[in-house]
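User: Structure tokens for both sequences below?

Assistant:
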Amino acid sequence: MRKKYVVFSALLTLFAFSSRKPGTHNVPVPYPEGFRNWVHVKTGLIGPKSKIFAQFGGFHHIYANGPALIGYQNGKFPEGSVIVFDKLEMVEDSSGNISEGKRKWVDVMVKDAAADSTGGWSFEEFTGNSRTDRAVRNQAIVKCYNCHAVRKVNDFVFSELKE
């Protein structure tokens, strides 16, 4: 059943991006509907003792669509790969139990050969639970790519598939 869903997810993703024309990577990255049903790549937690807690503290769940799984397996992400970075607040109760809080943002990377100035990826960040409030827009080089550039050898992807 899981394989059928991955194939179905891959087909939907390819269909969603097939209308994009070469050279038009400025077409807005769509919100990745249903991404929590995709393959869960890994989860990270940045706690209050971390130097980057103020900016990145909380839970980081990473999801991949069908084409992106190929990239995680062989290191080269095919066109139409979508990786989602779901960032949620960390909430600690008085007993020290930690749980997920509100969603802070959803970052999306879409493999798009036309996005040659950003390593073949288009980027977007949706704020909170919004499917329309965008934080990156046409600032992908400054807000995303400059950081991802250090991972060129990994096709600009930080995460690795957790088995």
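Moving on to the next sequence.
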Amino acid sequence: MKFELASISNINKAIVFIKKASAEQLKEIISQAEAFRVYSIQSKKGLELQNQASEIKLRAERQLGLWLKKQPKNKGGKKRIAVLPHIPQLKELGIEKIKSSIVQRIASLPEDSFEQYIAETKAKNKEITTTEVLKIVKEKERENMPAIKTIPLPEGQFNVVLADPPWRYEFSNTNNRKIENQYPTMEIEEIKKLEIPSAKDSVLFLWATAPKLIEALEVMLSWGFIYKTCAVWDKKIIGMGYWFRNQHELLLVGIKGNVSPPEEKNRVSSIIEMKRTEHSEKPDIVYEIIESMIPNGQYLECFARKNKKRNNWTYWGNEI
């Protein structure tokens, strides 16, 4: 059974084929449909033909996602028993991890919501795209996210603030690696609106991951601080990432009002080398560094994620 390019013009026939197709065939359908979609745009064949190709591509992506979701996960360790049928891995199928993540996210959308998107987009004479489906998936995911407990910020004025905001990310390769599985996250605008009880003259130490650097600078400015410099935490363990596999986080420093740099004897290396432990857990040495830079400060940690017992610190967060 082979998918013919002519099937683009017969949606019903294509849908029947897609539902019976193997992973290899689905991959080929996606490639052919995308090529035809691009051709229809370049040759100005019109939105109807373009959408026919887009719909077939999208349906094949969803079917491939459903197939991938059903496959046993590789837990490592034990060898495959010879009598079991061979299950092709992503590399064997020529499917990149990011593509696998996308098609599985599409497959996570309930069928009625998926069909509703297709029907409404056609009725409105708009373009059918994978991007729009992913937006719907994201909205569905947000509806199911755990609500963040509303905890009043502490009273007083703190001249040293350490913050590790719960940044929200767009994608995750697998559901079990999503940030939301570890702790509730917040949208950037929610974080920016927080009224941090910082003193007129104060310092902010703000944790930021590499993909969230711009957002972190926006938060710093919204909280009334001016960026000055940063340190780099080398975690010693390689992590996830789509461009580089991240092994570091940034500790940004900003000031508000009249604040002098630490004495020269208390200026440490900008590289903090400490092996990562639990998810999002930061190295304890950072507290020592901050205390040596700014002795006898009024210290506040925002978004603290475990019970803290360090003297002279006030902690705020929904997990303490």
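User: Anything stand out in the second?

Assistant: Residues 47-70 form the longest helix (24 residues).
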